[in-house]
Design a protein that fits this description.
By secondary structure, the chain is mostly helical. The protein is built from 16 helices and 2 strands. It has helices spanning 2-25, 35-53, 56-79, 87-103, 107-122, 124-133, 136-155, 169-193, 199-224, 229-254, 259-284, 301-325, 327-337, 343-354, 361-386, 389-412, and strands at residues 196-198, 289-291. α4 runs antiparallel to α5 (107-122), α13 (327-337) runs parallel beside α15 and α14 (343-354) runs antiparallel to α15 (361-386). A two-stranded antiparallel sheet has the order 1-2. It is globular.
């Protein structure tokens, strides 16, 4: 329809201008703020005409674009002005294809792709800086993440084994990929932001990577330098707050059908922790810096295998406890497994809740919350045993209030 084509042309023009503006500011000699919108529009029109004239129109368009880019580079080489790399040329071809995607009705995908092209071009310095800061261990972490997600996962059998038919190697490893991916995202953010950041950022990233490891690290750091206890308290409590956000995200990914019944009480717990974090921040440190540990890459194969084994054991324990003892048995398993890890019990409970004849959501979110509270108590014990006295004076009332509030949610939530 004409209106549809006009809308597609408007979007193509907007995306082309976005990428062209970036190239113009980067002083590209091949294509800029006028050329990129034209390239995107040509791709759109070529794809639109292909419906009636045949696919050769689209092919001829990309061949013509490639020839023009080659000619431009040849002229620049003769003049001695050719630069290194082919970023602008690849971006031009990408925008041509994005225009073609718009004509095929893939509006959302085309808009996302156009925005990604613009961001990749704009983030040149940040991405090059990130690559320059990568150590051998960081590169190995990326490769091991690829091994975990793209080599091991596809070859594992997608079939249930063992007692209660809950041990599915493919399903278990899929949860390993999810958890390692979350931690890896926090690790990448840590490397991007550098090794110094404000206490709020340190807490956010620490919670994504590992709130327990963060608590241990900052407790030890406060013992060595008690003057930094206020900052350490903010980081520890905020990391524990993010841990509740982390399990909420896991529920959304693994069992979206039960989100409406399970997330509100967990969100209330996270909100309470956020208020406590804000109170500690306002009381103690303002926006002062907090040195961050140089975390180990979270995609090492051995910890992934350990988590997979732990998750499998928790799956068995949860199935056994529910079969033999009902919800009371589940609470015992949650209290024990939550001491050091919230992810395994969260994922196993989510799997039970999403099955047709599985666990009720009312019991499910309480199991996850109880695991979170025991995890909080464990981290509090870590701070009491490792941290400086000023840190203990802040963490005890903070975690105490959180535990009391969490217990109230556990018992009183309708």
């Amino acid at each position: 329809m004409p209106d549809s084509l006009l809308l597609q042309m408007a979007v193509a023009l907007a995306l082309g201008l976005l990428v062209g503006l970036q190239r113009e500011r980067a002083q590209s000699e091949i294509a800029g703020i006028r050329t990129f919108p034209l390239i995107t529009l040509v791709g759109l029109l070529a794809a639109a005409l292909a419906d009636s004239l045949g696919g050769w129109v689209l092919g001829a368009g990309i061949l013509s674009l490639t020839a023009l880019l080659t000619m431009a580079n040849f002229i620049r080489m003769k003049e001695g002005t050719a630069g290194e790399g082919m970023t602008t040329e690849i971006a031009a071809i990408a925008m041509y294809l994005i225009g073609a995607a718009l004509a095929s009705g893939r509006m959302v995908e085309a808009v996302v792709a156009g925005a990604v092209v613009a961001l990749l071009l704009h983030w040149k310095d940040s991405l090059h800086g990130f690559a320059a800061r990568m150590r051998s261990a960081d590169f190995n972490a990326v490769m091991q993440m690829a091994l975990i997600a793209f080599v091991i996962l596809p070859i594992l059998p997608d079939q249930a084994y063992g007692p209660y038919q809950v041990i599915n190697p493919h399903g278990i490893w899929r949860m390993v990929v999810l958890i390692v991916g979350i931690s890896m995202a926090g690790y990448v953010a840590f490397k991007l932001f550098g090794e110094k950041a404000g206490a709020p950022m340190a807490g956010l990233l620490g919670g994504l990577i590992s709130s327990t490891a963060t608590s241990v690290s900052y407790a030890q750091r406060s013992a060595a330098n008690p003057a930094r206890s206020a900052a350490a308290a903010v980081v520890i409590v905020l990391a524990s707050t993010v841990a509740f956000g982390r399990v909420i995200g896991e529920l959304v990914v693994v069992a979206p059908g039960v989100v409406a019944e399970t997330v509100p009480p967990l969100l209330a717990m996270m909100g309470l922790m956020a208020v406590i974090s804000a109170a500690l921040y306002l009381r103690g440190i303002g926006s002062g810096p907090a040195e961050m540990d140089d975390h180990e890459p979270p995609s090492e194969l051995k910890p992934a295998l350990v988590f997979g084994a732990l998750y499998g054991l928790v799956l068995l324990a949860v199935a056994f406890a529910e079969d033999r003892f009902g919800s009371s048995g589940l609470y015992v398993v949650a209290a024990i497994s939550g001491l050091t890890d919230m992810d395994a019990i969260t994922l196993s409970t989510a799997q039970l809740m999403k099955s047709a004849d599985g666990l009720s959501t009312e019991v499910g979110w309480r199991v996850i919350l109880l695991a979170g509270l025991t995890n909080l108590a464990f981290k509090g014990a870590v701070v009491l045993s490792l941290g400086a006295v000023p840190l203990r004076r802040r963490i005890v009332p903070a975690f105490g209030a959180a535990l009391i509030g969490g217990a109230a949610i556990f018992w009183l939530w309708p």
